[in-house]
Amino acid sequence: MFRRNNIQPNIRFETEDTYASHRMVEAGLGVSLSNYIESKERSEDKSVRLMELDPPQIVEIGIATPSDALISPAAKKFRDFAMKYINEITEVTE
C-alpha cells in the first residue's frame, strides 16, 4: 500500500500483533495500519481512534484448502463460514 501511494514511512517500531500496535499508538509512538475486523473491538475502549483511509485501500486475502475429500470437517466448516462472511462484507462495502 505504501509503495502504491509513493509513501516512505519512518518506521521505528513494528509488530504483527494488533493488540501490541494499539498499545504502542496509545503510548504515543505513532500510527498503526490494521484491518477493520481486528481493530474494531480493540478500539471500543476509546484509547485508540479508528480512521478510514482516503482513498480506501483494498488488501486481497485468500483461503487455500485441500480438496473436499481430504479436508477435515472442522476445516471445511471454517472455510465455508469464512467464504460466506467475506462475501457478505464485500456486498456491504461495494
Structural class by SSE content: mainly alpha
Largest sheet: none
Bin the strand percentage.
under 5%
* Radius of gyration, in angstroms, nearest whole number: 17 Å
Record field, number of beta strands: 0
**Helix content range of the residues, please?**
25-40%
Number of individual domains: 2
Distance between the termini: 20 Å
Poorly predicted spans: none
Mass-distribution shape: elongated
Number of helices: 3
Task: Please tell me the overall pLDDT.
Answer: 82
Q: What's the order of the H and E elements?
A: HHH
Please tag this protein with its features.
single chain; 94 residues; mainly alpha; 2 domains; 3 helices; 39% helix; 0% strand
Task: Show the helix and strand layout.
Elements: H1 18-26, H2 36-42, H3 73-93
General description of the model:
The chain has 94 residues and is mainly α. It has two domains: 1-57, no CATH class; 60-94. Helix content is 39%, strand content 0%. The chain is built from three helices and no strands. The longest helix has 21 residues, at 73-93. It is elongated, with a radius of gyration of 17 Å. It starts with 17 loop residues before the first helix and ends with a helix. The mean pLDDT is 82.
How would you concisely characterize the structure shown here?
The chain has helices spanning 18-26, 36-42, 73-93. The protein has 94 residues and is mainly alpha-helical.
